[in-house]
Amino acid sequence: MTFCNILEASQAQSFVTRAANPVRCQLLLLLSDPVGCQDLQRQVDAEKEKNRSLEDQYKHRVASFAKREKTTLNKIDALEKRLTDGAEHDDHSKRMEVIGNMHGSVVAGLECIQNNTAKILQDQEKDLMRAFRARLKEVSKDLEDQRSRKGEHSTELQARHRRVVAELHEAQELAQTFDKKNQALVAENQKLQERLRTRDDDRQALLRELVLARQQAARLKAQNGKEGAATGDVFPPVSNQTAPSPKGSSRSFSQKQVDQAKLQQTHNKQFEREMAFREAAKKLKRMVEAERRTVRALKQQQAELMQHRTELEVLLKQSLDDVKAEVLRHRMAAEGQTGPAMGVPSDHGPALSTVSVHELTAQDRERVLELLLSQQRVVQLLYSKTFAHPQLPPISPEPVEMRNEPDFTWLGDILPPEDFA
Q1: Which class for 44: exposed (0-12), middle (13-18), buried (19 or more C-beta within 10 A)?
Q2: Measuring CA to CA, which residue among 222, 303, 298 is closest to residue 263?
Q3: Where does the signal sequence lie (predicted)?
Q4: 101-153: per-residue pLDDT in tens?
Q5: φ, ψ for residue 157 (rounded to 5)?
Q6: How many other CB atoms are there within 10 angstroms of residue 31's CB atom?
Q7: Environment class of 260 (CB within 10 Å of its CB; exposed 0-12, middle 13-18, buried 19+)
Q8: Is residue 245 within 8 Å of residue 260, measured between CB atoms?
Q9: Integer angstrom CA distances of residue 97 from 91, 206, 227
Q10: The domain boundary residue, chosen from 142, 176, 196
Q11: C-alpha 72: how far from its chain's center?
């Protein structure tokens, strides 16, 4: 047994003797024992853990209690507020009832005012209609008086109308005549183009025949040269007459020489035929150029005609739009519309499209003709259509040099260069 153990035992005995409480004595006994001390320490830790858990539970319960207490206080305050606001709510209800009664009286007064206003407007409308009818009767009477006073001018207006209608018919007939002439010129142009195509085909066929003739002439020329070299005759290759012999003694010809002379004459005929082909080709060229000039003149005349006709159509359309705008303004004025509808511009498409040409009266159509003929450009166009008849440009004759001096340069594109040697 060690000294420490003896000291601990003595201390424990002294503690036991000093302790008056039995529990204290037990604790002292447990402390004196090391194993019991460890058990006691574990128990103390367990108690501390329980104490902490109890403290946590206590804090949680305190917080929940404070929350419930707060909500309860809020409910109590609300109930107290409702209890105190009861009298004020009764006063509010009374005031709302008074306001409702006042609103009903105001609505009833407004209904009465609306009814009175409607009656007043109806009376004013009746008065305006009576005044309008009276004014309309007065205007109608004035118009009848003016027509009766202007009766002496009606003959002049009718004569002017007949003159304008006659001019219009003449312009229409002139337009129809030009249209027929245009159609006839178009048909003639088509025929001339067809003839030109056929002449081009004939020219190509003649050129092919000319090439074949040239080839045959070259072949015969080569054959003649070979036979002349073989027989040794003295005739020149390109001569229409037989040359005399160098000695001048013999004038007789053999059969071979006669055949060669015939071949040379055939060659000359081929050359004449070639020249005729060239003359025909030149004539065809001149005819083609003349036809082209005629076609250009006709096209220019047709373009001028279409331009003048288009200009007349535009001017007529403008006059018609002006009259339509006037008719539309009179119609809106008769319907009693004022403001922006009264000033309808002449180029207002959607508004003018409502007025059809068939709705125009005779006076409106006379107004269209007056507006059309009042323009100086229309009179100029009609005058130029009526009295101006441009003639087609004459076909200029070919110069004498072109007829007398044939041009063979165009054959260079067809025949090889060695054929001209």
Answers
A1: exposed
A2: 222
A3: none
A4: 999 999 999 999 999 999 999 999 999 999 999 988 888 888 887 777 665 55
A5: -65, -40
A6: 15
A7: buried
A8: no
A9: 10, 122, 149
A10: 142
A11: 79
Number of domains in the chain: 2
Structural domain range at position 215 = 167-239+255-416
The verdict on residue 403 lying in a domain is yes
Judge residue 153's burial from the number of C-beta atoms within 10 Å of its C-beta, 0-12 exposed, 13-18 middle, 19 or more buried. exposed
405 and 308 in a common domain: yes
Q: Nearest 5°: phi and psi at 341?
A: -70, -20
Full DSSP string of 211-231: HHHHHHHHHHHHHHHHHHHHH
In a domain, 381, yes or no: yes
Residue 208 CA from chain centroid, whole number: 54
Q: Enter the tokens of residue 71.
A: 């909500």
Q: Is the pTM of this model over 0.70?
A: no
Helices (runs of H) and strands (runs of E) counted in the chain: 9, 0
At residue 156, the 3 state secondary structure works out as: helix
